């Protein structure tokens, strides 16, 4: 039903023999394609999603290679270049925030740190927090959601109430409060590492009910299916059914919700850093750069535009990719 | 209906107590585990031990957490007196705590700042509901057209832009660049035009973000509903397309939209922290952010409580509205 009818094949010659071969290959295709394969075929045809995915991959590479890249452009994210700053106004000399020459995206006001280098390092924080907090949320949400849906009864009541409660919580406020009371060093970490660790845990913790609700709902309907009865009648234990029978069927919604969660988490991290409870200076973070830029929005607008655009591109890329993944994995889609 | 209301109100009250306990837990237990003395955070780290001890006694910081929560709730109804030795501070009836940092009761701070946040949230909500829902419905009805594509690209861009960036951008362009708007907050009592002028940029920026979100969700919901049997039935009955969309499809579309509205509005009323910070609006969000930076616990506690009440009330209103809008929903 989802076999693409006019998929461009390498050599679509009007040869009867070849056509038959193609047809039989397609027939085999239809039988043998897994959900992942179908989804991949669909995703491949979605140009916007592919663009988003490519940008995401690029961003990951940039984040991983940030030290190498900054070395290549010959800049250090923490080095001051006060000679480039107009001593009267504290803003960079020259037009567009000191852009050009050695500093491809200009320098920061007052201390003259290279903006491009800080953007590259900022990508590390954004992606790290975005991904790992999504992992925390998915892990918690999947386990608790599947338990609630499968066991029902009081287990379900307790977990569902907790989820409702968490969703009704003023989240940003709590995240800010929690992050701000954390000590400066813990578990052998210190400074920004503590903040990153705490942000990952806290953002992940407030995110799990979104996944949990979906997984619970899916589990509720899946556990009544025949194949679960079949497994049970063959003597399968509860945990076998949970993790070998149900979990594989939950993979699609889990993937969809986790891809959609990453951009939200990146925005939350940027917001926390913007509000001053994220990573600590001098560690570079996009949100923090924007927060510093408030004071210069009139005198040095470039300082605000660069990190803002970085956040925008990142989140947009994840959103495009996430929308594509959702469409590709949606069993109701009839394309 | 009445029984439902009572049950919901009871659940809301329980939720409030839980939230207050969690806030107490965050600010009293977490530092304890981390080995930080809470009392020092009230007087500053350099204070002498006697002052720390006095504040501990005054605030009852060594009492069990349940007793502290109880004292807090009692204070709301009968007021509260903080006393240590000869030093007595009284906090009058709706006592949501007393800030020893800024030497003032919390309740006046809340009532001062609440109108700012409320006008921000309500004004923006009107804008985003009108434009977001309209754009979403139009997109669904004209699926696949240029309008649909354009609207959805703009919406996707909108949900990918952080408010503190669009806010700064709009300030740079409209306030500084073109000099069209004087982005200063003026209380409504002082001057309507001043208030309106100061709020217009925050409203539009905030509404843009939410309108983008609402347009996406409205479109998806509408498309799903247009495929349902009862819409086909309505069309088969020969109803005018206007009636089918306006009366039948819209009702079901509004249900998830209202759920979102309840949560979003509640959360915003509790402090549009990011918007208020970006535009320097003296609202609850700004108060709580400053309080967090100064570790001024009573303010945080008061604002959190107000926020939670706002979220709970908004959700309750939404649940009741469901029954009015969607005839399939029965409150029981």
Automatic annotation (TrEMBL), chain A:
Subcellular location: Cell membrane
Assigned GO CC terms: plasma membrane
Keyword Kinase carried by entry: no
Family of this protein: Belongs to the binding-protein-dependent transport system permease family.
Annotated TM spans: 48-73, 125-154, 166-186, 192-211, 246-266, 302-322
Membrane topology: Multi-pass membrane protein
UniProt xrefs under Pfam families: BPD_transp_1, OppC_N
InterPro entries: BP-dependent_transpt_permease, MetI-like, MetI-like_sf, OppC_N
The organism of origin for this protein: Streptomyces griseoluteus
Tagged with keyword Transport: yes
GO BP: transmembrane transport
Protein name: ABC transporter permease
PROSITE patterns found in the cross-reference section: ABC_TM1 (PS50928)
Keyword terms, alphabetized: Cell membrane, Membrane, Transmembrane, Transmembrane helix, Transport
Sequence ranges assigned to domain ABC transmembrane type-1 in this UniProt record: 123-322
From TrEMBL, chain B:
Membrane topology designation: Multi-pass membrane protein
Cellular component GO terms, alphabetical: plasma membrane
Biological process according to GO: transmembrane transport
InterPro entries xref list: BPD_transp_1_N, MetI-like, MetI-like_sf
Alphabetized Pfam families for the sequence: BPD_transp_1, BPD_transp_1_N
Statement: the UniProt record of this protein carries the keyword Transmembrane: yes
Keywords: Cell membrane, Membrane, Transmembrane, Transmembrane helix, Transport
Family as reported in the entry's similarity comment: Belongs to the binding-protein-dependent transport system permease family.
Protein name: ABC transporter permease
Natural source organism: Streptomyces griseoluteus
């Amino acid at each position: 039903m989802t076999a693409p009818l006019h998929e461009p094949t390498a050599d679509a010659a009007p040869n009867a023999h070849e056509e038959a071969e193609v047809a039989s290959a397609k027939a085999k295709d239809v039988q043998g394609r897994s959900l992942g394969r179908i989804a991949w075929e669909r995703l491949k045809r979605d140009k916007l999603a592919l663009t988003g995915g490519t940008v995401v991959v690029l961003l990951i590479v940039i984040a991983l290679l940030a030290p190498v890249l900054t070395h290549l452009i010959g800049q250090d994210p923490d080095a001051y270049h006060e000679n480039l700053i107009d001593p009267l106004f504290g803003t960079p000399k020259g037009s567009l925030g000191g852009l050009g020459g050695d500093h491809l995206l200009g320098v920061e006001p007052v201390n003259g740190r290279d903006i491009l280098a800080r953007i590259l390092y900022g990508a590390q924080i954004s992606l790290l927090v975005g991904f790992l907090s999504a992992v925390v949320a998915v892990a918690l949400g999947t386990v608790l959601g599947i338990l609630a849906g499968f066991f029902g009864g009081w287990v379900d009541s307790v977990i569902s109430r907790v989820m409702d409660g968490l969703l009704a919580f003023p989240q940003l406020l709590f995240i800010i409060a929690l992050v701000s009371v954390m000590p400066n060093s813990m578990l052998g970490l210190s400074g920004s590492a503590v903040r990153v660790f705490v942000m990952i845990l806290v953002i992940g913790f407030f995110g799990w009910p979104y996944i949990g609700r979906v997984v619970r709902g899916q589990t509720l309907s899946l556990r009544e299916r025949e194949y679960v009865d079949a497994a049970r009648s063959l003597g399968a234990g509860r945990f076998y059914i949970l993790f070998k029978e149900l979990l594989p069927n939950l993979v699609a919604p889990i993937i969809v919700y986790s891809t959609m969660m990453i951009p939200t988490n990146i925005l939350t991290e940027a917001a926390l850093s913007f509000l001053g409870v994220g990573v600590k200076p001098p560690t570079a973070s996009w949100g923090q750069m924007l927060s510093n830029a408030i004071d210069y929005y009139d005198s040095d607008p470039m300082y605000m535009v660069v990190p803002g655009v970085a956040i925008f591109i990142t989140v947009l890329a994840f959103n495009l990719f996430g929308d594509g993944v959702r469409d590709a994995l949606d069993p109701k889609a009839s394309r | 209906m009445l029984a439902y209301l009572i049950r919901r109100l009871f659940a809301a009250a329980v939720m409030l107590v839980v939230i207050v306990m969690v806030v107490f837990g965050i600010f009293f237990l977490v530092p304890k585990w981390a080995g930080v003395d809470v009392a020092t955070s009230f007087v500053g780290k350099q204070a002498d031990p006697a002052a720390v001890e006095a504040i501990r006694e005054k605030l009852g910081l060594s009492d069990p957490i349940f007793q502290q929560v109880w004292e807090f709730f009692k204070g709301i109804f009968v007021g509260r007196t903080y006393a240590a030795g000869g030093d007595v501070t009284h906090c009058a009836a709706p006592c949501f705590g007393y800030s020893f940092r800024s030497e003032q009761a919390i309740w006046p701070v809340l009532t001062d700042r609440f109108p700012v946040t409320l006008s921000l949230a309500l004004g923006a909500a009107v804008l985003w509901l009108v434009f977001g829902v309209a754009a979403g419905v139009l997109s669904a009805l004209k699926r696949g057209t240029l309008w649909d594509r354009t609207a959805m690209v703009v919406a996707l861009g909108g949900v990918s832009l952080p408010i503190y960036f669009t806010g700064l951008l709009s300030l740079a362009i409209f306030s500084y660049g073109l000099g069209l708007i004087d982005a200063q907050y003026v209380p409504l009592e002082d001057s309507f035009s001043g208030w309106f002028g100061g709020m217009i940029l925050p409203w539009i920026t905030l509404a843009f973000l939410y309108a983008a979100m609402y347009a996406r969700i409205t479109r998806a919901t509408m498309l799903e509903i247009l495929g349902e049997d009862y819409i086909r039935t309505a069309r088969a009955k020969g109803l005018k397309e206007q009636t089918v969309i306006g009366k039948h499809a819209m009702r079901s579309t509004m249900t998830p939209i209202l759920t979102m509205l309840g949560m979003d509005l509640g959360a915003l009323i509790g402090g549009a922290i990011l918007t208020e910070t970006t535009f320097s609006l003296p609202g609850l969000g700004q108060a709580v952010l400053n309080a967090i930076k100064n570790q001024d616990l009573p303010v945080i506690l008061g604002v959190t409580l107000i926020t939670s009440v706002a979220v709970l009330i908004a959700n309750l209103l939404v649940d009741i509205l469901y029954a009015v809008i969607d005839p399939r929903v029965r409150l029981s």
